[in-house]
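REQUEST FORM: STRUCTURE PREDICTION
Request ID: SP-0412
Submitted by: Lab K.M.
Chain count: 1
Length (residues): 424
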Amino acid sequence: MPNRVVVGTQWGDEGKGKIVDILTEDAEVVARFSGGANAGHTVVIDDQTFILHLVPTGILHPGKICVIGNGVVVDLEQVLCELDQLRKRKIEFRDRFLISQTAHLVMPYHKVIERLEEEARGKDKIAPTGKGIGPAYRDKMARNGLRVMDILDHDLFNKRTEWNLKSKNHFLRKLSRKEFASIKKKSLEVSKFRRRIKPFIADTVLFLNQAIKEGKSILFEGAQGAMLDIDFGTYPFCTSSNTTVGGACTGLGVGPAQIDEVIGVTKAYTTRVGNGPLPTEQQNEVGKRLQDGGNEFGATTGRPRRCGWLDLVILKYSFRINGITKIALTKLDVLDAFNKIKVCVGYKYRNKSVTEFTPDLDVLGNCRPVYEELPGWHKETHGITDYKDLPDEAKKYLDYIARKLETPVFLISTGSRRDQTILP
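STATUS: Completed
RESULT:
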């Protein structure tokens, strides 16, 4: 089977958890390459719902080996919490779960710093998840970070933690002495996870490349979406890692020639959480219907997602920078109740036509979408598992998307459950 990368093509929340869960059937290893506990992947199997933030979705499949790569920033408390929940639900993970020895740690002081920085922004808030992701990646790039392997050396871990707390005084001086003492204690206590996490720490670069050499199929699991990429997204309203396909190589230590397919998970409309531009946002009854019909509330934060029509300007750009080879389209059934469906094909900005994505936030935040209108099907597609059973208008909508993006739709999700899927 091919080695596949799964990436989100919009602002995250496209339904990657379900798609990875389905594609895991054809993989032997599932490897997460970016982000941290700010990601929330939801999988519904029969009447059970699983929400994972760091542990790869493939863990729900017996016998599949799951890897957290070096490109992920790891909150050890969150990882162990997820493993405890899996154990309670009789999901066995012993001998099939690995964490990169060089992945960086999210420390308690990172979360405090993120909160303090956001408070200082005033009206220019970015609205992060509060999981400490940005400060953790900043320490990594500034060469001040603590890596997973550092937890194995008690003296080294304490020394670096003490130094980091001292060096961050310009951030933490807003705290009272009591608050600072508490954060210091919590940070040093991260070392208490050493015993439980040690069996999972591994040289994952060596493991993955050896697996590929042996002919095993790897599924590379991304987090968030392309428009939240630190380099290619709507900066600064983005995340702090490379969520695009290149992150699979740098976040796992696997060469690009080892990637056979890039699956772009695309929602049938558009959503985003937090602040930042969303050109097709519908702050009206349409937006409310999309939000309610799609249960658009964040798996990580519970925050409501802003909703709008599908944006082809964004998607063409996203497909270009990721080299998308196939589309996995999700939440088609949410559009069942609409008589007319709009799709954005361009923008108007100061009487000028814009047909290509621009990183200029003034344009994205103040443009007027140009729409093409397609007929709705006004029939229920929820739970359909055979393409021929879809209404003709729904098929035309899918064909329209594939034609405009010059990429085939190979998987269609018609509900949240694993079995509510149309496969070729």
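NOTES: The radius of gyration is 22 Å.
Reviewed by: T.R.
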